[in-house]
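Run log // design_07
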């Protein structure tokens, strides 16, 4: 793939932003008609247009990025489970793009992944995706383009949105439903990462190597600008609730770079689904933890009238915009934050009762050890799976119909959200504790920790496995599974 130089967008002044809003219309009138850009035959259910957008996080805080249909996040796509859909994607940028349907069980040619040989949406071109949405639940869609050293590509941009698949028999036991995407903006490179939040840092570090690699760390990506959906804390409309209501929050960590902890001051979240899949044991928690790419559906009983902040548990991150106000009727004070009494997050509490066996005994096991090769000053870290770089396509060969166990051994000082495309994972172990019945597509493997997942090889075709942190994926933290 040839990477073209791209317009560099930073934050804009208001005047510049006003001018930038004219951009899409000007571009379309001046754009040459691409020969491949003719409309495919037949009716489409959804159209997504990839183009530059401005996002007004707050007054005087307007940034420019690439988004879908003139906004970021993109439109909430609601689909019916099992009902085939057609999505036309128009690419009004000068670089090839891919749209990935995260958490859906779809074939490789529409999964939106270069490594799986999904065709690109050409620059100034279009492509039609047709698939049958399943399974039901909170999914999402996003660019799967590689970014490497370009922080204006792939999941660093505003190309993301919710995709909700309706089963048709949701009991709807809630009074309000809110889709909240956690985001950071204006990423920059740094070799200094404040390790303020490494999931598992206080847990048994089962995979900590006896001898640590102390070479100087390479580049990571950081941000100082945050929002929930398209608004920074305090800038958008509050979520207005009444005492006694049950409010369902569908949360998504749409960050390209960071895992994040979220709480709602004065309240507990009752977690009912992880990555869109109902959990065996719904549990109340003080704070949520979402790895990049993960979703959590949680219900809050509105039983503590006031004006509260739902946001990042880290004060500096909230202060930089990651939050939204939850306001009870007839309450008019300043929004309040209260630290949760514990930040503890543990997938295992949502497991089926102890002693319950996983869905099926695995036929085969693959060990997967993750290592970081520090890049040193000004260079990128690289990432190895089982001591080797991507693609590993001769090692992870699947027999159709067989059940596999993947044992993740995280020998790095980061918590990594590991995503397997086109398949559903059952979490069967986290840091030495057995679990069952928790179905996910993205699993955070704790700091020097260990996790095991099981899946059935029932989706023939190339299948990408990767860390959902963009710069980790781009610099080697991935493997290609194939079917025999
Ligand atoms: Cu990672």
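design_07 sequence
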């Amino acid at each position: 793939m040839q990477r073209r130089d791209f317009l560099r967008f930073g934050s804009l002044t208001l005047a510049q932003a006003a001018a930038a809003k004219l951009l899409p219309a000007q571009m379309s009138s001046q754009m040459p008609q691409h020969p491949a850009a003719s409309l495919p035959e037949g009716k489409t259910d959804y159209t997504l247009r990839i183009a530059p957008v401005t996002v007004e996080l707050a007054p005087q805080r307007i940034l420019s990025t690439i988004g879908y249909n003139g906004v970021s996040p993109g439109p909430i796509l609601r689909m019916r489970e099992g009902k085939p859909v057609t999505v036309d994607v128009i690419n009004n940028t000068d670089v090839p793009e891919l749209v990935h349907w995260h958490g859906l069980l779809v074939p490789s040619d529409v999964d939106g992944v270069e490594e799986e040989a999904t065709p690109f949406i050409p620059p100034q071109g279009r492509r039609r995706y047709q698939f049958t949405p399943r399974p039901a639940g909170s999914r999402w869609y996003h660019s799967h383009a590689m970014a490497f050293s370009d922080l204006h590509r792939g999941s660093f941009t505003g190309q993301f949105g919710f995709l909700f698949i309706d089963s048709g028999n949701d009991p709807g036991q809630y009074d309000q439903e809110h889709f909240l995407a956690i985001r950071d903006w204006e990423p920059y490179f740094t070799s200094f990462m404040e390790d303020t939040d490494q999931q598992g840092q206080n847990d048994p570090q089962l995979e900590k190597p006896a001898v640590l690699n102390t070479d100087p760390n390479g580049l990571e990506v950081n941000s100082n600008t945050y929002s929930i959906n398209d608004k920074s804390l305090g800038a958008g409309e509050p979520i207005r609730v009444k005492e006694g209501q049950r409010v369902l929050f569908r949360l998504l960590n749409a960050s390209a770079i960071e895992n994040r902890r979220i709480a709602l001051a004065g309240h507990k979240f009752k977690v009912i689904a992880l990555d869109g899949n109902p959990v065996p044991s719904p549990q109340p928690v003080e704070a949520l933890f979402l790895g990049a790419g993960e979703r959590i559906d949680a219900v809050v009983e509105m039983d503590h009238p006031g004006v509260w902040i739902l946001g990042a548990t880290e004060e500096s991150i909230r202060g930089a915009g990651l939050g939204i106000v939850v306001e009870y009727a007839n309450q008019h004070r300043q929004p309040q934050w209260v630290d949760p009494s514990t930040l503890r997050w543990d997938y295992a509490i949502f497991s089926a009762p102890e002693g319950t066996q996983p869905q099926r005994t695995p036929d085969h096991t693959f060990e997967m050890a993750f290592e970081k090769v520090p890049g040193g000053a000004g260079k990128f870290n690289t990432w190895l799976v089982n001591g080797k770089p991507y693609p590993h396509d001769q090692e992870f060969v699947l027999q159709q119909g067989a059940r596999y166990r993947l044992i993740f051994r995280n020998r790095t000082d980061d918590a990594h959200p590991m995503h397997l495309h086109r398949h559903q994972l059952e979490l069967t172990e986290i840091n030495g504790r057995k679990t069952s019945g928790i179905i996910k597509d993205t699993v955070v493997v704790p700091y020097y920790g260990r996790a095991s997942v099981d899946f059935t090889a029932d989706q023939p075709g190339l299948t990408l496995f990767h860390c959902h942190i963009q710069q980790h994926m781009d610099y080697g933290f991935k493997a290609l599974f194939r079917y025999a």
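The chain has three domains: 31-170, 223-345, 364-483.
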